[in-house]
Amino acid sequence: MLSETWRTEIKWLLQAAMLVFVLTVVLGILNGQQIIKPEDQAARLAHVHSGTLGWITLSVLAVCLWLFGEGTASTRVRAWMRGVSLLAAVSIPVYVLAFLSGNLVARAVFGVPVLLAIAGFLAWVLSQSRQMRLGVAHLAILGAIVTLTTGAILGVLLQLDLATNQNFLPTGAFAAHPSALVVGYLVLIGMALSEWRLLPPTGRLPRLGMVQIALPFAGGLVLTIAAFLNLTALFGVSILCEILGILIYVKRFAPRIARAPWLERSSTRHFAMSGIFLVINVILISWLIFAFLTGVYPSFEAIPLWLIFAFDHGMFIGVLTNALFGLIQEVAAERRSFWPWVDDVLFWGMNLGLIGFVLSLLTNSRQFEPYVTPIMGGSILLALLAYSIRLLTRKPTAVQATPGVQT
Description:
Blueprint: H1 7-32, H2 41-68, H3 75-101, H4 104-129, H5 136-164, H6 173-198, H7 207-229, H8 235-258, H9 268-293, H10 305-331, H11 341-362, H12 369-392
Helix pairs in contact: 1-2, 1-3, 1-12, 2-3, 2-4, 2-10, 3-4, 4-5, 5-6, 5-7, 6-7, 6-9, 6-10, 7-8, 8-9, 9-10, 10-11, 11-12
């Protein structure tokens, strides 16, 4: 069970994440209505970073406290993590606003406290991991936070490079930054949340599960190094790691996903849908890398934006947002009686809208975007309102937490 030790910090992080996600969704709807023009780089970067950092990463930091926060903490550790959590909850939204402003100096300055907050969480997770029995979900989160920190370092260096116009980074750094975050970080987070919520504890640390986590971690690391140093030969190693890892994932999770209660108002269907999108997205990642290696796209810049957008939204919404909303439903379970129908509106509206949006991108039928983006975005905004109220009024009872070691 989740102790009361970190409940306040988890609440801070989730509420900050949901607040920033409002901006993400609004920008997405405006983009779908073609109000935001392709040349408006500030709005597009704010949309991406508000989703990746504001919504996903703030929620992932809350998951770190939830998963690794067993037992009591000393006064010193408690004060440290309260400060780090507050730093994350404040600095990440400010960093997103810096991207929206388009000011390169502001982006460079406000990226530093974000990096410090992420590094603080990494240090705490590493410390906790030496004091508790780890399961596959713990290992996946640990690998994800290591990868996130790597991507954050690259991100801050890129902002400094742009702000000073010194060009001290190799051109590969611009591809290495998203490679670390999307291929390494987000895939691992998706697997961790599936492991945590879909597989029951058995008291054993399965070898197959460990291999499943190790492969995408290695694949993301190899891809980041290959992109940074422009070592094309290593890209194939990354493909192999990702494909083998997702094949093991399918073997372990397909039966659970197939039995998901799709018509019930439960968090399980969100985790199951997250798993389906995870498989699809890893296949798409591997295909993109293969297309680059075989010359279909001679450079990363040559990959069509519509294809990147389709992949990004499949990962951000399909994989992570489904899983994170599943967790939020569990945190606020005591108040599920408040607007219970919102759970159905969110699940079906968000996912059907997402499928329509991705298909419109993949078929280059952009005329359908103004119709499907309000369905997807409106469902999410309604859920954010309902779940915020549930979190603010929830009863102070314990929540099911770390299931220990997985099978």
